[in-house]
Amino acid sequence: MNLTRWNRREVLGGLLAVGAVSGAPSQRSFAQGPPDTMSEFLIRNAYVLTMDAGLGDIAGGDVHVRAGAIAAVGRNLSAPGAEVLDGAGMLVLPGFVETHWHVWTTLLRSLSGDRQEHGYFPTSRTVGTFYTPDDMYAAGRLAAAEAIYSGITFLHDWCHNVRAPEYAAAALRALTETGIRARFAYGSPTGASGDSSIDLRDLERLHGAWNQHANGGLLTLGLAWRGAASPATLRDYEVAKDLGLPISVHANNFQSSAGGIQQLANRGLLTPGMQVIHAVWCTPEEIRALATNRVNVSVSPYSELRIGFGFPIAADLVEAGVTVGLSVDTPALSGNADMFAIMKAIQNIENGRARDEFKLTARRVLELATIDGARSMGIEAAVGSLTPGKRADLIMVDTRAVNLAVMTEPAHMLVEAAQPANVDTVMIDGRIIKRGGRLTRIDVGDVVDSAAQALTALRRRSGWSWPARA
Ligand SMILES: [Zn+2]
After folding, report:
1. How far is the CA of 183 from the centre of ligand 1 (A)?
2. Ligand 1 mean position to 87 CA, how many Å?
């Protein structure tokens, strides 16, 4: 990792906070050891959207962050010794919770072409076969950097290109070094046959030694499940269940795959806390089965629309009592990781489908991107709202930008008008990772150069020639 652009005051503040004043930090210790975790901040005089039903919004509010956690929210808080962050003109809210992202495909941004043979699946399967662990690392750094820039503080890396244990290790290294909070869902190599298991020994090994990989609690492990296609994939499910790992599966995305959720329900494979992705083509019975089994759904409007799955049914799911989170899926289709745009798309799709201006409110959509997203990933006790005691994952959005002025209704502004560039500050686990609109701990130039070099070499090795190069 390159930590050449950190904020000197942040480093010094962190060192002073833990009393470690006897020597300058090495870059390595700064990346791994968390001296700045103990930094104390007071965000002063902001418009605070806590996304906690009991606390609500606080105009002219303060947020006190101490030891990586939300210490208090309210007005006129006292925190002597805390570094004050001026909240004037800022909306402060929990960081966005992203719920399904094939991070390794971030190198393939906008590479899904215009003809059948250049579509998303041929592209990702062909090029994906040629990935090296270094490519996983380059993709992971690019994805996490974009996520943090865009105000996403948690992502779900649905890794369906684990070609060998080194691939999972490289993906985890990227997540670790960038400082994002994430779940790593362990999957198969792309293009693997449906009757093969994932590397269960590596999954069990990782699980057994997870405290060495958890990056101070920021990272968790899950299963990227391919569904009940064969005895081998059922074995993946059983092992993950035995290990107590969360399970996530794509279902009912294509119209031709309708009925998949019903089959899972019939076989007793829908269990509480499980995640189903897309669920575009659902019968009322299937929606009821999701709700009664407390299965959560990840909706990714831009990939679902772009690839032609159909329209998301987020409002139907929400009305039925299903917990819904929002997701990026793959930049090969969605282009970017703009959670503001994802929220706006969902609201507009649902209101348009229902022909009802009031079908899905901005506030409800904002919940999907924060607290409900956290519930859908089973991490709501730690993040998703600015509730005292939770970890300090938050963003500050500058309302004085030309596309956000003037101040009207904050939830509407966030869903309808805000963009990633308006995210002034991002804090994860009490560490500032974006400040003044710039990433402070990630060398963006190096991340982008590495990703470009990786893709150039991948295209050469795979012979992937679309689009034609001059
Ligand atoms: Zn997906």
Report:
1. 15
2. 37
> pLDDT above 70 covers what percent of the chain?
91
User: 189: CA distance to ligand 1 center in Å?
Assistant: 14
Q: Contact 356/310 with Cβ under 8 angstroms?
A: no
Q: What DSSP letter does each residue of 199-234 carry, written as one string? A: -HHHHHHHHHTGGGTSTTTTEEEEEEE--SSSHHHH
Compute the distance from residue 212 Cα to the ligand 1 centre, in Å.
Answer: 28
pLDDT tops 70 at residue 94 = yes
Give the separation between CA 276 and CA 282, rounded to whole angstroms: 12
76 Cα: distance to centroid of ligand 1 (angstroms):
44
CA 446 / ligand 1 centre spacing (Å)? 28
The H-or-E segment that residue 144 falls in is helix 133-149
CA 364 to chain centre: 19
pLDDT tens-place string over residues 142-201: 999 999 999 999 999 999 999 999 999 999 999 999 999 999 999 999 999 889 999 999
How many of the other CB atoms lie within 10 Å of CB of 231? Answer: 9
Cα(95)–Cα(113) distance, rounded to whole angstroms?
A: 32
- How far, rounded to the nearest angstrom, does the alpha carbon of residue 310 sit from its chain's CA centroid? 23
Cα 298 to averaged position of ligand 1 atoms, centre (Å):
9
pLDDT higher than 70, residue 377: yes
pLDDT-derived band of residue 469, with 50, 70 and 90 as boundaries?
low
pLDDT tens string 245-280: 999 999 999 998 899 999 999 999 999 999 999 999
Interval between CA 329 and ligand 1 midpoint (Å): 5
Instruction: Report CA(71)–ligand 1 centroid distance (Å).
Output: 36
Give 303 Cα–ligand 1 centroid separation in angstroms: 8
Taking the centre of ligand 1 as the mean of its atom positions, its distance from the CA of residue 187, in whole angstroms, is 12
Q: Which residues is 185 bridged to in the sheet?
A: 158, 222
In angstroms, rounded to a whole number, what is the distance separating the alpha carbons of residues 464 and 462?
Answer: 5
